[in-house]
Specification:
The complex is a heterodimer. By secondary structure, chain A is α/β, with parallel strands linked by helices. Chain A folds into two domains: 136 residues, Aspartate Aminotransferase, domain 1 (Alpha-Beta Complex), CATH 3.90.1150.10; 255 residues, Type I PLP-dependent aspartate aminotransferase-like (Major domain) (Aspartate Aminotransferase, domain 2, 3-Layer(aba) Sandwich), CATH 3.40.640.10. Chain A is globular and about 70 Å long. Chain A starts with a helix and ends with a helix. In chain B, helix 1 crosses helix 3 and helix 3 packs parallel to helix 6. Chain B has one domain: Sufe protein. Chain: A. The chains are: A alpha/beta, B alpha+beta. At the A-B interface, helix 12 and helix 14 of A face helix 2 and helix 3 of B. Bound molecules: pyridoxal-5'-phosphate.
């Protein structure tokens, strides 16, 4: 069993009161809190080893570079990529997706080609493809979902065809928590020669990810949803694809040599890392990965399942609650509305009681158009949440409903 | 009654509340009581889009030279807050609307609703009221 109380004690922010109540932080799909080791690592970096990387010939530059590159190796191992050169540091999932759209996408997608997304996508896995499609005259197609928030898998056979160049979907839905059958999708896409990008923003905290076994072409995630700092993200890509992709942003770091006549580009992964990166953040991501790896995946998943099951059961006891997303396989996310109450009203009254949830469209507007509601209240769980917190949340919710009725 | 004295009045009303629940109960009641905006005015032109709750605001200059405001929101707490703001500015002179500092929201401990992260449209609505005040006083001059 996961020692949740020991884990909680590693997160200083959770020890506070909000509006005079103990903070119950259930907005983990937006961003997770940071363990003390991550916070201290950022502090230690600036106190002891701050220097620009890959270029200085001095002591501090060498140490910083080494620490930075250690995170790349940790990330490679975390995702089970074949080589560290396949790990590109970006500023987040959004940045990773845009990188692929602007390089691989502009090189490989043409008029009439199809890009397949799903109804569950986050805006950051929609808009970059729309921008590309508009520029190239390509077509966006969408995997439809069932009412329970799962893909209509049978539609894949017609949606994926010889015009499909790319399938870009999330592994776990941030709005509903659905865990999507990406293995099936990747096999079907590859059968017709399409490439697959997986938005892993919500999955890396929930389950072990093995990009090698998945055989996906690109995988993206953000450090801040994995107990790490904001401003750092990861793009995994297969070497043969990354090698063939043109660079995107130009600048320092990404070049081998520059003259006004001709510039030659650096090798992977540096080709895609122009300019000074978020060095402290990348190093601290390494510590966040250490934290996650120090836990047992089966215990983490079991704990989050328990939180989800408890929250779901208690919510369903409340009159008028409608849960959106009832897939058999879900991560720690529960999205709901209560009768005709506006999510914002519920969220405001929960906040007054120290309970932090997300309300609104969660950056998935097309999904809410499908359900015909403007948005929901969303509670999302992390390893440090407890069953007692679920109960506090439900008590606070009942009080909110009472006030609104 | 001047904008300032209406603000003072609201601050006094809220001073009797001893906890957040009483305060929000009152706001929710105000929201329920706010006369709904006429459907003709509930147009996209009058829509102030916050990220989460939507606010409609209609302004009209009447013969007395004063401005009448009607407003609505799809969230009841936002609607209650909107009711308070409308009460303060309704039936006032354009120049006063444009120039008077709105301080009661902060004074009654609800300034977090003015933060852009709240995105409930309240901050944008107040900005829009000020713009109406300016526009109508310019028309008048
Ligand atoms: C599924 C999914 N994709 C993409 C993103 C965007 O991540 P970021 O804002 O860190 O770039 C998020 C974060 O909200 C997400 O949940």
């Amino acid at each position: 069993m996961l020692d949740v109380h020991a884990i909680r004690s590693l997160f200083p922010i959770l020890q506070q009161q909000v509006h005079g109540r103990p903070l119950v932080y259930l907005d983990n799909a937006a961003t997770t809190q940071k363990p003390i080791a991550v916070i201290e690592r950022i502090d230690a970096y600036y106190r002891t080893t701050n220097a620009n990387i890959h270029r200085g010939a001095h002591h501090l530059a060498n140490i910083s570079t080494e620490h930075f590159e250690q995170t790349r190796e940790k990330t490679r191992a975390f995702l089970n990529a074949r080589e560290t050169a396949e790990i590109i540091f970006t500023s987040g999932t959004t940045d990773s997706i845009n990188l692929v759209a602007q390089t691989w996408g502009r090189q490989n997608i043409g008029a009439g080609d199809e890009i397949l997304l799903s109804m569950l996508e986050h805006h950051s896995n929609i808009v970059p493809w729309q921008m590309l499609a508009e520029e190239k005259g390509a077509v966006i197609r969408v995997i439809p979902i069932h009412d329970n928030g799962t893909w209509q898998v049978e539609s894949l056979d017609t949606l994926i065809n010889e015009r499909t160049k790319l399938v870009a979907v999330n592994h776990v839905s941030n709005a509903l928590g659905t865990i999507n059958p990406i293995e099936t999708l990747i096999a079907k896409a590859h059968a017709t020669g399409a490439k697959v990008l997986i938005d892993g923003a919500q999955s890396v905290t929930h389950m072990p990810v093995d990009v090698h076994a998945l055989d996906c072409d690109f995988y993206c995630f953000s450090a801040h949803k994995l107990y790490g700092p904001t401003g750092v993200g990861v793009l995994y890509g297969k070497r043969e694809l990354l090698d063939a992709m043109p660079p995107w942003r130009g600048g320092g770091e990404m070049i081998k040599s520059v003259s006004f006549e001709k510039t030659t580009y650096n090798e992977l992964p540096h080709k895609f890392e122009a300019g000074t990166p978020h060095i402290a953040g990348v190093i601290a991501l390494g510590i966040a990965i250490d934290f996650v790896q120090s836990l047992s995946w089966s215990e983490v998943t079991a704990h989050k399942q328990q939180l989800l099951d408890h929250a779901t059961a208690l919510l369903l006891e409340i009159d008028g609650v409608r849960i959106f997303g009832t897939a058999p396989h879900k991560a720690g996310v529960v999205s709901f509305n209560v009768a005709s109450h506006h999510p914002f009203d519920i969220g405001t009254l929960l906040d007054q009681q120290g309970v932090a949830v997300r309300t609104g469209h969660h950056c998935t507007e097309p999904l809410w158009n499908f359900y015909g509601v403007p948005g929901t209240v969303r509670a999302s769980f992390a390893v440090y949440n407890t069953l007692e917190e679920i109960e506090s949340f439900i008590t606070a919710l009942k009080k909110a409903i009472h006030l609104l009725s | 009654m001047s904008i300032e004295s209406k603000q003072q009045e609201i601050i006094e009303e809220f001073s009797v509340f001893s906890d957040w629940m009483q305060k929000y109960e009152y706001i929710i009641d105000l929201g329920k009581d706010l006369p709904v905006i006429e459907n003709d005015y509930k147009t996209d032109d009058n829509l102030i889009k916050g990220c989460q709750s939507r606010v409609w605001l209609h302004a009209q200059l009447i013969e007395t030279g004063r401005v009448q405001f009607t407003a609505d929101s799809d969230a009841i707490i936002t609607k209650g807050l909107v009711a308070l703001v409308v009460r303060v500015f309704d039936n006032e002179l354009p120049a006063d609307i444009a120039s008077t500092d709105l301080h009661f929201v902060k004074a009654i401990g609800l300034s977090e609703h003015l933060s852009p992260t709240r995105s409930n449209g309240l901050a944008s609505m107040i900005k829009q009221i000020k713009i109406y005040g300016l526009a109508f006083s310019a028309n008048h001059a």
